[in-house]
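User: Predict the full complex structure for these chains.
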Amino acid sequence: MNKFKDKSFKTITYVSSLFVIIFLFGIIASIFYEGLPIFQHVSLKDFLFNTAWHPTHDTPDFGIFSLIIGSLLVTLGALLIAIPLGLGSAIYISEIAAQNTREILKPLIELLAGIPSVIYGLFGMAFLSPFLIKTFKIPTGLNLFSASIILGIMVVPIISSLSEDALSSVPKNLREASLALGANKWETIIKVVVPASRSGIFNSIILGFGRAIGETMVVLMVAGGAAQIPKNIFQPIRPMPATVAAEMGETVIGSPHFHALFGISIILFIITFLTILITEFAIRRRKK
Amino acid sequence: MKLYLLILFSIFSIITSIVLSDCSKPEKKIKIAGSTTVLPIVQAAAEIYMDNHPDISISVRGGGSSIGIKSIIEDLIDIGNASRKVNIKEKELLNKKRNDLTETAIAKDAITIIINLENPVTNLSLYQLKAIFTGQITNWSEVGGYDTEIIVVSRDVSSGSFVVFNKVILDSLKVKDNAMMLASNNAVATMVGYTPGAIGYVGLGYVNKDLNIVSIDGVLPTPETIMNNNYKLTRELFIYTSKAPKELAQDFINFVLSEEGQQIVEKQGYLRIN
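Assistant: Here is the predicted structure of the two-chain assembly.
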């Protein structure tokens, strides 16, 4: 009986991991299968570096440069907000807060990660955007700035939680040695604890980057959707995931537009794949 | 171990009961999918139709006009909804399959030009609208409003409304690059509602009291101007079936076109077809 249980358990886990791999390769194969035909209509260079995106026009343009720039800018903006907030809260929770404060604060920050992205989007659309118009007297509230803020708030729990793990795994004797040498708490944190956990912090930032660049709902709702390279942070942009999400439902299946949207997915996939590769690499190196 | 068996058994019995109960449900089914603009009409009609015919079940899904047309061409569904006509590419696909479709217009809709309540502009000429959306006019003072920047709000390039708007107003020129492309009627209405300099367009059903409607060349979208096509941005909403629709599907279409069905159309904010 026990032997049977053992064997069946082995088989079940083996089959489930097999399925995960099948799904992964199935998805990769299908986005490349549907995406590559776009290059019969435009060259790779035009696709990547042309700024005009008019996919349904009689003389269509399939240039995604402004979409790529939009994605990179909004991700950069999100990280500019999320890194100080995430790292700051991680240092506070790990090094400064009392035990009971820590026990309340950590789950609260992690709760931020549990809020569905459509709610973040609604918040940005219905509250943040009108507020920005009134406060800054800017022409539109759906822009690079507001999308960066919302995305930044979404990324904070990732950076905070993972950095906190890295900080608290720094051995206690390192801290004690530093304090014993006469360094105060601030110097110990900045000069000893943070440098000792830098690869963990770096990983949290890379994962935050991956989360922000792939996030769809928020940029669809809050970024404004203008396919342009913004001249200032208060202009609307159109990141890649928003384009795919907004246009896929109504495009003619098998048309150049359809393939172009899968082409965008390939670019997005390559970017996120590289971020995962970098983190894996960093983890391996740390283990050695 | 016994507990495991119990759980396994109960899961198994739940699944069987679901499968069995599904079999005992009415076998007559109508499958519908397609445009989200047409969705509210068909959804409401399907609910009433099912109340009248308890032996028939109708499943209604969205997905967009293209999904509706594609699925009907591939014969995956019985009725496909679309807020636009079948385009050339889709006709090629039909020819390849040696297939044909029956097109039925079920309602009329008007794309309404909306601006913020604070904006004093009440009328724009066709030419001014075109100039605003293509980027030649960028300030409201050029068309009789305050000295503020015009924020152009458009629908996404694949929206049915966008296709109609582009054909009629833009004369197939391209929308300016910094126009904001929003993903839904609702998003456009909300954004124009709180953005003083914004101009956008939505379907009739989405106009509310927080928005000003702009007339085009002096014509406002009213039931009369839409019916006699004096208002430029009118369009029809369609449902597609295969060339010889199944009896059930045809009966449902007749219901949508009946007096009762057309009242549902009006209740959803659209105009009856005849």
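DSSP finds twelve helices and two strands in chain A.
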